[in-house]
Specification:
Layout: E1 28-30, E2 36-38, H1 49-74, H2 79-114, H3 120-131
Length: 132
């Protein structure tokens, strides 16, 4: 069933609102060119395996919630119900952000400070300003 939320005059029906299933991505690292390259054997991974698994579990759960929101819109559920679920997804993504930020501080920043990288402080300030 194709449905709308709120006012049919301002809302377009959504068909196939289901997003693609979240796949576990290959582990990559940023390159100097701004892209990403696969982490090779012997290289230190960006995230600790336990943190990566926790983040991926939370992202998969959030992906399911987003799919549910799409179904709610298709089914014509009330706007406040949809907004409540959107807020839940935002909180779930904030939790993933906290995992990634803590990992960044524990692994990336610590390694840079121990290595004497003077630019890490500027990067850290930029990250904290942008993401928190």
């Amino acid at each position: 069933m194709v449905g709308v939320v709120c006012d049919a005059a301002t809302t377009t029906p959504v068909e196939n609102a289901m997003p693609p299933r979240l796949e576990t991505p290959a582990v990559t690292r940023a390159t100097s060119a701004g892209g990403a390259s696969p982490v090779e054997d012997g290289d230190r991974e960006m995230m600790a395996p336990d943190k990566r698994e926790e983040a991926l579990k939370r992202l998969a759960r959030a992906s399911g919630q987003v799919a549910g929101i799409g179904r709610m819109i298709v089914d014509g559920r009330h706007c406040t119900d949809v907004l409540q679920q959107i807020a839940a997804v935002q909180k779930a993504l904030d939790a993933v952000g906290s995992i990634v930020l803590r990992n960044y501080l524990e692994r990336c920043v610590t390694t840079a400070i121990e290595g004497g990288d003077p630019l890490i402080y500027d990067e850290l300030m930029s990250v904290l300003t942008r993401y928190r």
